[in-house]
Amino acid sequence: MTRLANGGVIDRQRPLRFTFNGKRYQGYEGDTLASALVANDVLIVGRSFKYHRPRGLLTCGPEEPNALVQLVSDGDQPNLRATEIPLREDLEARSVNCWPSAKFDLRAINSVLAPLFPAGFYYKTFMAGRWDFYSRFIRQAAGLGHSPKERDQGRYERVNHHADVLIVGAGPSGIQAARVSAETGHDVMVLDMQESPGGHLLFHPRQIDGRAASDWVSREVGELQARENVTWLQSTTATGYYDHNMVIAVQHEPAESWLKERLWHIRASKVVIATGAVERPLIFPGNDRPGVMLADAAVRYIRRFAAVPGKRVLIYTNNSTPYAHLETFKTAGIEIQSILDLRKSPSEAELSLARNSEVPVIVDARITGVQGRSGVKGVTYQNGAGTKTVRCDFVCHSGGWNPLIHLYSHAGGRSRFEQASAAFVPGERAQGAYPIGGANGTFSLAEGLKEATDVANTLFCESVGNSAWSTPATPATEDEVAYRIDQIWPEKGLKGKAFVDFQNDVTTADIALAVRENFQSIEHVKRYTTAGMAVDQGKIGNPNVIGLVSRELGEEQSSVGTTTFRPPFAPVSFGAIGGSERGPLIIPARTTPMTAWNIENGAAMDEAGANFRRPFFFPRPGEVMEDAVAREAAAVRTSCGIYDGSPLGTFELQGPDTGELLNRLYTNRFDNLPVGRGRFGLMLREDGRLFDDGVTFRVDQNRYLMSCGTGAAGPVYAHIDRLLQTEWTDLNVYLVNVSAAWATMCVCGPLARVVLGKLESDIALDPTFQFLDFRDGALEGINVRVARVSYTGELSFEVNVARRSALKLWKILMEAGKEFDITPVGSETSGVLRIEKGFISPGHEGDNITNPFDAGMGWIVDMTKSDFIGKRSLLRDIKLGGERQHVVGLLPDDERAPVADGSALLPAQESNSRSGFQGHVTAACFSPTLKRTIALALLKDGQNRHGEKVVISGLENSCVATVTEPAFYDPKGERMRA
Amino acid sequence: MKRFSIFSIARNALTGHRHWEKMWRSPDPKREYDVVIIGGGGHGLGAAYFLAKEHGITNVAVLEKGWLGGGNTGRNTMTVRSNFLREDSVPFHEMSLDLYHQLSRDLNYNLMVSQRGMITFIQSSAANRIALQMANTMHIYGAEYRMLTLDEVKQKIPIFDPSPNMRLPVRGGVYQPRASMVRHDAVAWGFARAADARGVDIIQNCEVTGIQQEKGAVTGVETTRGLIKAKKVGMAVAGHGSVVASMVGQRLPITTQPLQAWVSEPVKPVLNEIVVIRSYYGTYLMQSDKGEIVVGQGADPYPSYAQRGTFPIIEDATTSMLEVFPSFGRLKLLRHWAGMLDIPYDGSPIISKTNTCGFYIDVAGSGGFKTTPAAANTFAHLIAKDTPHPLAEKLGLERFSSGRLIQEGGVSANR
Amino acid sequence: MSYQVEVSSLAHYALINLRGETQVTTNWEAVLDVTFPKSAHTALISRAFSILSLASDHWWVRTALKNEDELFHRLSEAVSGEHAAVTVVTDHFQGFSIKGPDAVAVLRQGFSLDLRRLESGQCTRGGFARCGATLQVVESGRAYELFVEASYSEYVERWLKMAQGHTF
Amino acid sequence: MLEIPCPWCGPRNETEFVCAGEADRKRPANPEAETEEAWADYLFNTTNPKGVVREWWWHVSGCTRWFQIDRDTVTHEITPVKDPSK
After folding, report:
1. What's the CATH class of domain B7-76+184-253+346-401?
2. 3.20.20.150, 3.50.50.60, 1.10.3720.10, 3.40.50.300: which CATH number matches A156-278+403-464?
3. Do D37 and B401 touch (CB under 8 A)?
4. What three-state secondary structure class fits B206?
5. Percent of chain A at pLDDT above 90?
6. pTM of the model
7. DSSP state of A319
8. Strands A641-644 and A823-824
9. Topology annotation, domain A311-398
10. pLDDT tier, C1 (very low <50, low <70, confident <90, very high otherwise)
């Protein structure tokens, strides 16, 4: 057990038992799984993706590439970083992608065959036979953890929030920026990814205003959280910066007990990016061995969790930061073998720190090998004086620092390479993004705090003149060693594997191979070697890849450039993104006043247009669809049926120019429509194709009521409103949607007049009430508008009533029709009735290619009108001519032959002039009225082929049919005009 | 071009992989070529390959403003299918599928073409009708497309676990067994290597800034690396069709809109087929060979060249995915990006001559990856012979002036 | 196990939809003897009725259900022949009352607009859940009235249950 | 996620709007006078610039007004356009 007796921010009174790779261990409240593993001397935490080399912890944060685990005890979640899992009682986790265990993994054979697996080897082989054969094995080896088996029971929430200033990151610079911004009285929101605020101050013994930094953090954060204009979210990751300063963030531990995670849409006018920086590894043979760790990570395990990675450490660096850690190692009782510094001359300040801790410094040193497979035994290095091997049990290395410029880059920012800090740092301003501190390449604490004050001060100066509020002073800090770095790349042709991407096993040799094969753009190198495409998305490795490529090509790092930073900054659960709306909420289920009644009365429901649910048919016990449809159709044809037409779109058009507008919208004339009458209108799209049809009534001199198809209601409203507001702005018409205000119940069938006649009413129903008239009045004391409109081809009265009285009137009609066995009718039946009548449906026969003449609706097209939407395109169709698909009827020779919608049409055997695809069936059914199969179809040159034979070719069956007029029942429409 | 195989890898392993050849030469541009192709993606490089292989025209340059395959070829969701509605689309996409299945051998470069099959869920009677119409049309052209019962869907996709109160219950599916997935980067690299080996000059970091004409005929292109003369210029620049065509004053019936895609962290195999949940938000997903769940959705709702997408698209697609695969709730989104589609008014590709003699265009349409080899082959035929390939006769610009569109979707009702 | 908020359906109200340019409003103002609110998000709340400004040429007059007919006719006659539209839309919309300390915690899941900028007495229209809504602020932060197209009322009821944290 | 400046309601999330295409695409006053080429251009073709485009947007969930903005299709920077009729 290497847990220090005291120190660390853990609760030693609360031990926690946990299981890792089948073995039981013990940690404390406040540990992460990673820190508990370090404290229990567990070195191997996983296996690498390609070579399956044993891997240990490299970092102490979310950028960890090696310690990916399957969290069996909490939803069996795959690919979690051990560094980010707070330890819980009875936590159980396993390393991913190793079998039978992390210690002994059969696939480690790959590292023996490594020479056969250079970068991109799979493009050059596996070509004999089909790839499916090889991919079956490769897919088993690929993938890390396994996808959870059970349904995700988590509840999620998605919220929208607006702030004047959003501050991402509550490290020292973030806290200072929050202090200054809060004083201005603006709305401030602060997000921080860690469990508690403070950033790197949680891990390093710094002084602020002469006291321990942690006191400064807890006092300042406490004050800020109490302020009314500050919203503070801990354990919340800002994952992406999108257009117009929209930042998406995921809150992992919401206060509401029923929520697993909450997704935030934050619209801010200014975004201060204080996300800090992460340490970068050095490149040397064996830099992936368990026990080789980043220097800052080792310090964090010691400081924060009192967990000690080893007894005897060797430090390897190209920059100044590890020199400040010597005291931490010393006080933890760790012997520092020596500091190997790649640089020829570390600064005097750095050397004096080493002297104070009596640590030997070897300059111009290069590690050439690490001894030990599943743990470090020793290190071999070279410097001017030759090669030496020293014993140590863990190695801490630091290759510099990578500013986390992800959010700045998402915002559209172009980073630039800064030679002094050997890092890509933010360039000019991008949107409202203001990077500060480590994220801005400012690694010193003092400078970061000063930068925070200055930037926060300027955020609102422009809008409020000079700063009219008091600005909290930048806190004082003790002096620190100036950050110095000298990037020194390993010489070419290095022996042994030196890794740049730990998870995807990408070595310096792979980078050299890619450049050698002419993959020279950084994007090509990334895709060919898969460097930076692993789960950590190259957070720590990419800058090294850029450095190696620039060395291979002999170009500056700034011209090599970075690959694109894509959201999310850290992986986000799909539950958080889309789990808030489940089941019935995914798209609205729109209802009419009769929907509940339909369901209670046994309707089989179906999806209509525009998210409406409507009855398909009303099966009685023992009936299948065909039986119910036959019964319902017979009722409409012979006695009385009733159906709910409320989903149809209903728009009120008011104003003196409404007649002129309708003339331009419909193919036929409407300005001459008398008040009290309706007219069937056909609407085209500008390209002359069928768009929608329906009846429009003239209710008053300047007031019309238009009805249109359920699915077309939205597009028709947009079409008319667009024309009124962007093209014909001179027309005096207002368009008002009243679809849900009216319920429409259609009483149809020969006995419709008798059924309605039974009701106490002031509306005369005698034949003077002609087809397409409407009359206002009352039925059983309820105000209604009754119109003679028929979609079934039978005598039909559409009773329109205000929503508030709809269900009451519906029940009255059902009661009145009981003695005539009034039958509720579903859409499948009304579909059959429509086919029998040959009524054209823009959605079926239109099929986006049919014009009115193709559909045999020339009778409704008034080409004498000066203009209407689609007319110019009809003139083009007429002029250019050529073969077109026409709407026809089809009568199979075998009257009982089943025909499926969408069946293709082929020429009959004997016709020699035609071959191949001739068209398709748009709507087919067995007609209970005609006791035979009938169909409507689109057929090439159909209007000139009546009487010809065609083959209807369906998937299961095909038959021969005769082409006819597309109307099978009461073609002249006498019944509906009775 | 030395042949790639396991033996070539073993041979090179002995010498530490130091002797591999360049995949392509990256020469400086000559002053004149017979044909210049603008755009170094799958379509452009493929056209150059077929010009050399099938028409013997090798004095060809492919000009790419960035890096090969950096446009939509590197940004799509790898799906290849031929389930379409119209007789003018099915044969063309079938040709593409056929070519894809033999390209690895022809190019001697493993494109990792896995024939996973595609299942589209049927969630309403309207969806059922359209599926039947597609199936019947495809049946005529020998493309198998079968209806599946709900049980067959469950049997093929074990993790299919629809929530009980699903807004649009899945009634069954329609299945194209031959639909496949192809490693997208390898298409560009494979074509580039094979075209380069036949003498085609592939020139990166060479942006075309203008097209020169004399008396209505193309004479050359101005580029960031100087003037290059040519009597025939082919454009295959998905996402920039309008920009390049405007250099000869040619307006096109397309809008450039982002098409987003994203991947989860890699997990062990759980999903074999490509799955389409059409009735919600047109969401489709599959699992890559590497183990990532790859998800895509319809295009963003407004034109953009920003090569990034808007977040609600991902939210809606994820919501519909979780309705059918609720166990993916704890899987994590790893990375999301966007390609830029030139979406034609009628949703079908445009492979056509133009009003300018010698200037030919290949506009990939919505989802140009599935048509890459067929478009490249027919585009090469058009450039070489100046007449359309039989399968691409209906794909010219004439269909817009005649109004005889190939309505594969993509029509906006209020135009 | 859920947010502190009570949701209930509104009833016994009438809504008259007015469309017309500013010069037409003088006719309506004469009828109601009041000046119309003419800038964005403003409303005039009085005992007998309230007038919500929804766009530069668009208002709602909200009153008790019993006044619906009489008010409709008076407003229609005032503008007959003018370029204006007067329409009863009472049944086209369904109103909900959302009251409680957590009202904003629920509504911010549906509205993308900035709820905290809307003071008491203001109103606006915006995207809400998947159907859009008109919002009247009774008491900022604590009490709101939400109107959605009536065919969405069942969907919105279920959505509000979800947003409160109940199972649905 | 764009923020669109509605002239009446103020800036709102893109999900409240519908992008309704290029503003310079005007319907010809007299369609029958248009040649086949010009009519097909009006019906189907676009400018589709990589840069600033003047567009119609419809605040469908808000005040239902149609208004124009200038939008850069690369940076998504938006500048309001003065309403010609007002």
Report:
1. alpha beta
2. 3.50.50.60
3. yes
4. coil
5. 86
6. 0.96
7. B
8. parallel
9. FAD/NAD(P)-binding domain (3.50.50)
10. confident
